[in-house]
Design brief:
With 159 residues, this protein is α/β, with parallel strands linked by helices. The protein has one domain: Leucine-rich repeat, LRR (right-handed beta-alpha superhelix) (Alpha-Beta Horseshoe). Helix content is 37%, strand content 16%. The chain has 5 helices and 5 strands; from the N terminus they run αβαβαβαβαβ. A 5-stranded parallel beta sheet has the order 1-2-3-4-5, with no helix packed on it. Helix 3 packs parallel to helix 4 and helix 4 packs parallel to helix 5. The protein is globular and about 45 Å long. It starts with a helix and ends in a 16-residue tail after the last strand. The mean pLDDT is 78. InterPro entries: LRR_dom_sf. This is Kinase domain protein. It comes from Tetrahymena thermophila (strain SB210).
Length: 159
């Protein structure tokens, strides 16, 4: 679906929608386009489930992650968040900043994160800390398998 079609879809959808899956398979290179899409997401006030797959879109992973964070933190009914950026790439600090934004959405109880970033063991400590600040989080699925710089010693921070 081209951006114009995504834009039209988000404009036409009833804001009472409770479940939304966004898969960005086509390359979106502009942070401005990401901002336009996430501004539309803010209209969906009753979302309980949101899945965002930007795994095929490295530029969106890099430039658009904070835009999604700004939008998601306003979703006060959201209980489940899935973020897939497994084939994309970003910096670990961007992922941590994204999670710092999203943790303001206190209703999240289930979170799935498929991440590919340049995490090293020290970054995982920061990642574990920010995840621990999700007040109502009951289930976390975390996939860091695409991070070549990470070793098993880093997982100790998640105990």
């Amino acid at each position: 679906m081209k951006f114009g079609a995504v834009d039209q879809f988000l404009n036409e959808k009833n804001t009472q929608v409770q479940s939304l899956q966004l898969f960005f398979k086509q390359k979106i290179v502009s942070a401005q386009i990401a901002k336009q899409i996430t501004n539309k997401l803010q209209q969906f006030r009753y979302l309980k489930y949101l899945e965002v797959d930007i795994s095929e879109n490295p530029q969106l992973c890099y430039y658009g992650l904070s835009q999604f964070g700004d939008s998601i933190k306003l979703q006060m009914n959201l209980t489940t968040l899935e973020l897939n950026m497994k084939n994309g790439f970003t910096n670990s600090y961007q992922v941590i900043e994204f999670l710092n934004q999203v943790k303001q959405c206190a209703s999240i109880t289930t979170m799935t994160l498929n991440l590919r970033a340049n995490f090293i063991s020290e970054d995982v400590k920061d990642l574990a800390f920010v995840i621990s600040q999700f007040q109502n989080l009951k289930t976390l699925k975390l996939d860091l398998s695409q991070n070549q710089l990470l070793n098993l010693n880093a997982l100790i921070y998640f105990n």
